[in-house]
């Protein structure tokens, strides 16, 4: 046994016991409660390689329709001096739109090309992180209350299981400043990975009712503006969000 073996065994034991003690916070009908694997950057790589069109790597693609709609809203909003987290980097359209206006823009992606492309742009106060948003590493990447706006047009589209989707929502709530918001879009809510490899349970295709059920489990209120959905801390819900 080498020196790191006891630490690895202890960490595996801790993960196992966390998994055993997991009690879902909300129920929208998911059957896969715990996939049993720590989410990694390459979790969906097999799906990406299987597909004949881009699934994960949008570094060379125009923004999707839903991302473009979010960007139109961003272009009309006053985000001067704000801290932005963009989940699902794509071709860094958000950073190209907001660099020099927002105080900083951080982005996360599982696509290596998006990570390289985004960082190579050398935009002011912009950094891309190669991280799975469902991972513990992402949960620990940023300080609590770091962001005014968190953008994710595919909130649950790549959810491996209830436990890790819940971890993601917990992280989002932790990262939001008190008046911050999460912004998503109807089209991306409706889409899940469904190509025959590593498919996501269809239950994670969200509608307004499911989004409200999830949000309320974290003390968030949902406000709809046409096809955009904003999640903000519900008044008096801070205690729920922290519990
Ligand atoms: C279809 S592309 C969309 C890119 C961009 N948001 C747009 O709509 O134009 C999906 C994006 O989600 C990211 N992604 C998928 N699963 C992820 C995960 N578990 N953690 C972090 N990013 C993920 C991919 O890396 C990619 O950036």
Automatic annotation (TrEMBL):
One of its GO terms (molecular function) is S-adenosylmethionine-dependent methyltransferase activity. Residues 85-183 form the Methyltransferase type domain. It comes from the Bacteria. InterPro entries: Methyltransf_11, SAM-dependent_MTases_sf. Gene3D superfamilies: Vaccinia Virus protein VP39. This is Methyltransferase type 11 domain-containing protein. It comes from Lysobacter capsici AZ78.
